[in-house]
Amino acid sequence: MDYSKNSTGNLSVLSFLFVAVVFIFIWSPSLPNVFSSIQINNPCFPSYMTTAMDAPKDDLEKALGEASMGNKTVIIAIVNKAYVEGRQKTMLDLFIDSFWPLINHLLLVTVDQKLYMSDKFIEMMWIRTLFLADVLKRGYSFIFTDTDIMWLRNPFTRLDQDEEDDLRISCDRLNGNQWSEANPINTGFYYVRSNNKAIALFDSWYAKRHNSTGMKEQDVLDDMKRRGEFKRLGLKVRYLNTLYFITIVHANCCRTINAKVADLTLVLQDWKKFKATNQKAASFNWSGHNACAHSW
Would I find Transmembrane helix among this entry's keywords (predicted)? Predict the structure, then answer.
């Protein structure tokens, strides 16, 4: 598809168009197989968007079809209440503001807000894994992205979709070898291709939920990698170099939503200034991320 080069459009325009191109569903641990209405009190969204409470599960198929690119690829993000509430800009506002060129291919899934690493939070993460497995089984490849990520450029130009990798996943620190399983994975951003190997991975991942007390799903996947599960399934996995893969900025070092919003707002403002000045990165003065540093 053709992507717009002007991704910093007025938020009021963004708000108007958003209703037509983003599909929002409730995916609750208590209701894993149905959709329901969603109420959002946020100036960047219409007052409410809804799907029928008794809508058949094939409504997901319809939404995937409308959001997908020509090669049956979609972008999926999970949103909870904390990310859409705020007196000024919210975390979701920032995410969308950075996301403009790819907005037609974004599927937002809403979940209940849970305390980080509580039993309910971990349960919610496993429901997310189950949902993503369902997407793969429907024949759709996807990028999964956390919502506290700024998309500064189109990542598909760097992911080289013609390659045969089954999984491309971000890591906290690349050890110099993009194929090394010693790299610590980060499930905040990854691209997975729909095929039998990827489906088997997600099924195996979800099946381990009862034998991983106190572990979040990222830790379980990392443990599966260390135990040779990736090799057993014949997966071709590439680990993204976060030093050079500067298409995205992830606020995973911040403890609070307010700190994420504050520092990511500066990132987005700096990025817009950088693009407008035609400077080289080495000569551009980037703002410090003080809110995240002071959130601990």
Answer: yes
Range of the domain at 280: 253-296
Let me know if residue 5 belongs to a domain: no
Pairwise CA distance, residues 219 & 233, whole Å:
19
Q: Is the pTM of this model over 0.70?
A: yes
* Rounded CA separation 230/239 (Å): 13
The Cα 290–Cα 280 span in angstroms is 24
Q: Is 27 helix (H, G, I), strand (E, B) or coil?
A: coil
Q: How many structural domains comprise the chain?
A: 2
| Bridge partners, 167 (sequence order) | 192, 237
The CATH number linked to 131 is: 3.90.550
Same domain, 170 and 287: no
CA dist list (Å): 25 to 67, 232, 234, 235, 286: 13, 35, 33, 30, 37
Q: Are residues 260 and 213 in the same domain?
A: no
Mean pLDDT of the chain: 75
286 and 190 in a single domain? The answer is no
Pairwise CA distance, residues 194 & 152, whole Å: 26
Query: Does residue 120 surpass a pLDDT of 70?
Result: no
Neighbours of 151 (CB within 10 A): 23
